[in-house]
Design a protein that fits this description.
alpha+beta; four-stranded mixed sheet
């Protein structure tokens, strides 16, 4: 039992990272149009319940009068379940001070807002050279999204994830002030089990339960040993 508890304690690791998240419900399913430009033409990175994690670099900038929350990036969330609760987390190292803001929009909201459509179009255009230059390299989630069997005329529950990233530091290094380095991030789509418990926390919950059970047995074992020890000492004194 002592060995089991010791092995569990060895699994505890220290981490220095930041996390920002947004919680939402899967929107109503809609018929995704096939006419160009399609969602595929946007060349966005995509997340779904089957491809739920993305590791990438996101460009950031200092807030300005025209971009209060920093630079905009977009990610497509597709193949969601209607009325299913999800959360999207973005995690980054504490060594890269950045302020993130996450917002989600369904398709009707996007089409009704010229500002959102303009921001999405600008981001999509900025990615075109990047996509062409890396298309021969290892597949990414975006290429997996392109090759998926989903036809864009199908009924789908889809959201756009809007990410704002603002540099949150000050340094005497003028180069870093003039040119904010890209932020290395993990973006995770996490569905809730029964709309109550995040799926990613199941291993943590199991670990806590096992640790609690092990601690209970360990405390019981120690109390019995102490009781027997005290009882033995009392019996020895009585014999004397």
């Amino acid at each position: 039992m002592l060995r089991l508890v010791f092995l569990l304690l060895l699994q505890i690791h220290a981490a220095a990272a930041n996390t920002e998240k947004v919680i939402f419900l899967g929107p109503s399913t809609l018929q995704v149009p096939l006419e160009h430009p399609t969602l595929q033409d946007l060349q966005l990175e995509a997340l779904s319940p089957t491809h739920w994690s993305l590791r990438t670099h996101i460009h950031a900038e200092f807030p300005t009068n025209t971009s209060e929350y920093g630079q905009s990036s977009w990610v497509l969330l597709h193949n969601l379940q209607e009325r299913q609760r999800y959360e999207v987390r973005i995690c980054w190292a504490a060594t890269q001070p950045t302020s993130f803001r996450l917002e989600t929009y369904d398709l009707p909201t996007m089409f009704e807002s010229p500002e959102l459509i303009t921001s999405l179009a600008q981001y999509s255009e900025s990615r075109q050279p990047e996509i062409e230059s890396i298309e021969d390299q290892e597949p990414s989630i975006s290429t997996t999204f392109k090759k998926s069997k989903q036809t864009y005329g199908d009924v789908s529950s889809t959201l756009f994830l809007h990410i704002f990233s603002a540099a949150d530091y000050y340094t005497m290094n003028q180069t870093l002030m003039d040119h904010v380095p890209p932020v290395f991030v993990d973006i995770i789509l996490d569905p809730y089990i029964c709309n109550v418990f995040p799926r990613s926390l199941i291993p943590t919950a199991a670990y806590i339960i096992i640790l609690a059970i092990g601690s209970w047995y360990l405390s019981k074992y120690i109390s019995i040993r102490l009781y027997n020890l005290a009882r033995g000492e009392d019996e020895a004194k009585k014999k004397v």
